[in-house]
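User: Hi! I'm working on a homework problem where we have to compare a predicted structure to a textbook description. Could you give me the structure for the chain below?
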Amino acid sequence: MLWVWLRLTSVIDNQRLAAAQSSPEGRVPLPFNEAVVCGLLAQAQEQGRCLTASDLCRQTRILKSQMNAILRSLERKGTLSRRRSDEDRRQIELRLLPEGMARYQEGHRRIRTLASRLISEMGEEKIRTLLPLLRQAADSFDAMQQEVT
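Assistant: Happy to help. Predicted structure tokens:
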């Protein structure tokens, strides 16, 4: 099981695979953690909400120091902005800028393309069997993580 797990995670996080799906504009895909953060920010914005760095740390379980580095990197790339909350001036709200939303959408398209290829190669029936098992594994790992923290 561990061998399959390591192999699967290394294949999924393979930068060459992601680069093969690069955008027509030639944008380099975002690193994994930056893409996750952009995805959460995009989802919140689509729902009319703003997130803070603390919200992102809670949802991703990324350490605050690592999250700050991710946010600084995204800010330097012109993908997100920070502004003080009107409701609570102590809070800094994070929002994706148009460039950030475009990069997120490109990454989302790449993932959908890869997922479609996987479904066509494995078949829909196997995928329907696999998904509940993967959800159960994720839930089990989540429970283990809760025990540690």
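For your comparison, note the following. The helical segments are 2-12, 15-20, 32-46, 53-60, 64-76, 98-122, 124-148. Residues 98-122 form the longest helix (25 residues). Good luck with the assignment!
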